[in-house]
Amino acid sequence: MIRNLWFISLLCWMGCCSCSSLRSGCRVVGEQQISGEKWKGIVDSRTGVNKYNLTIDAGKKHFSGLLLVKRMETGDFRMVFTTHFGMRVFDFGLTADSLTVHYCIPPLNREKIFRFFRHDFTPLFGLAGREPQMAVVYRKKKDPATEVWELPGSVYYLFQHHRIRRITAGRGWGKTNWTFGDYQGDWPSSVRIRHACWPIRLKLERL
Amino acid sequence: MNILNLLWTDMKTLWLILMGVFAMGGTIAAQEWQKVDPQQEFNRRLTETAGKIQSIECDFIQGKYLDVFAEKVISKGKFYFRKAGKVCLAYTEPIDYLMVVNEDKLKIVSGGKTTVADLGANPSMEGMNTLLAACMTGDLSLLGQGYRMEYFQRPDAYLVRIIPLNQGVKAYLSEMAVYFDKKDMAVSKLRLSENAADYTEYEFINRKFNTLTDDSKFMVH
């Protein structure tokens, strides 16, 4: 029994150590305001409706469908998730600080689920519509093209060559990672969302 | 002044012409689908054809229309059906995605991962799948009570409007419209309406009958 506990503790310690900070190997270069210009989000407003293949892995369960996102004239984002065979799962309106439920299928129609989606999707839409915030800017000593911007509340934005590569928010077990890749022009084509403690993984691929 | 009068006369003429065109269009549209009694011909023809068709293989084009975006999202793929109740939708665009219903099992292959669900363990899921299978294959006898049906026809097609009465189904679908080609009584188009403005439409083209000789397309394990 004690042996097992030691083993679990060791695993936890190794897990914590492996989540190294984005700031490691960086030095502070100053403070700057971060706004919508620095992080525009994944939605290309010029193309109308942005289409993604959204896959959700929750434990051993795998689910996928089409996520349709559009920046409306009001500046808000409208986000509709449908199954591949066309059934609408949810229809949300997102602003910088609120989520409006226009439709949701009965099994998912729960406040807890809405909070989860709001938490995971809000960082994808950039900083437009938010008050500019002061951020501490770090730069990698070995790679000056890599910058980490630290915001209050343990939120970090990692940029490489002015393109976002990763966002992390929260600490320890409450930490969430958003990883952006496969850039086409200014827009990332893939996003992976991972949680430190929840076995739920989301992946978006631009279609 | 003369020019203004001339313009005004021209506008009046144009307006009258437009009104005439719309009125004619309205009359044509009203004439296009006529209500029919299914007992007269539709049921007999459907039963006759259903008896002959053992399998269907065709291409399909799926259009998802969302009023809020005012845009149709198009998907394409292959549709397979084999008696009794085996359905396969193999999407090729925008991504590869496979859905197979074989008796009480549902298989989904997405992103290289296979999920098999037991429909018997989930009555609402089984109900939705039966409903979709009935509409896609045209075997409306699969639908039990709880639906109101209205029948229409035009020279080349029949239209069956299916309105769910059950609140559980209504939460997902407000109406289904199944279009049958009069030539072969096969489903040529299916529209699933979520509400008055949002719908998914499937068009079934290049239909081939009785070409599937085994269940290889419908394997769930």
Structure characterization notes:
By secondary structure, chain A is mostly beta strands. Chain A contains two helices and 13 strands. Chain A has helices at 2-18, 111-121, and strands spanning 26-34, 50-58, 61-71, 77-83, 88-94, 99-104, 133-140, 146-151, 155-160, 163-169, 176-184, 187-195, 200-206. In chain A, strands 1-7-8-9-10-11-12-13-2-3-4-5-6 form a 13-stranded antiparallel β-sheet, with helices on one face. In chain A, a hairpin with a 4-residue loop joins strand 5 (88-94) and strand 6. Chain A is globular and about 50 Å long. Chain A starts with a helix and ends with a strand. Residues 13-19 of chain A have low confidence and may be disordered. Chain B has 221 residues and is of the alpha+beta class. Chain B has four helices and twelve strands; from the N terminus they run H-E-H-E-E-E-E-E-E-H-E-E-H-E-E-E. Chain B has helices at 2-32, 42-52, 123-137, 167-170, and strands spanning 34-35, 55-66, 71-82, 86-93, 97-102, 105-110, 113-118, 147-154, 157-164, 175-181, 187-193, 199-209. Chain B has a twelve-stranded antiparallel β-sheet. In chain B, a hairpin with a 4-residue loop joins strand 2 and strand 3 (71-82). The radius of gyration of chain B is 22 Å and the shape is globular. The model of chain B is unreliable at 16-28 (pLDDT under 50). The A-B interface holds A 48-49, 51, 53, 55, 61-64, 66, 68, 70, 78, 80, 82, 84-88, 91, 102, 105-106, 207 and B 62, 64, 66, 68-69, 71, 73, 75, 89, 91, 94-95, 97, 99, 110-111, 113, 115, 132, 171-172, 192, 194, 198, 200, 202.
Low-confidence stretches of chain B: 16-28
Largest inter-chain interface? A-B, 25 and 26 residues
What is the typical, i.e. mean, pLDDT of chain A?
Answer: 85
Major sheet description of chain B = 12 strands, antiparallel
Distance between the amino and carboxyl termini of chain A:
50 Å
> Order of strands in the sheet with the most strands of chain B?
1-8-9-10-11-12-2-3-4-5-6-7
Give me the side-by-side strand order of the main sheet of chain A.
Answer: 1-7-8-9-10-11-12-13-2-3-4-5-6
Can you count the beta strands of chain A?
13
Radius of gyration of chain B: 22 Å
> What's the main sheet of chain A like?
13 strands, antiparallel
The chain-level structural class of chain A is mainly beta
Distance between the terminal alpha carbons of chain B, to the nearest Å? 82 Å
Count of helical stretches of chain A: 2
Quaternary organization = heterodimer
Kindly state the number of beta strands of chain B.
Answer: 12
As residue ranges, the low-confidence spans of chain A are 13-19
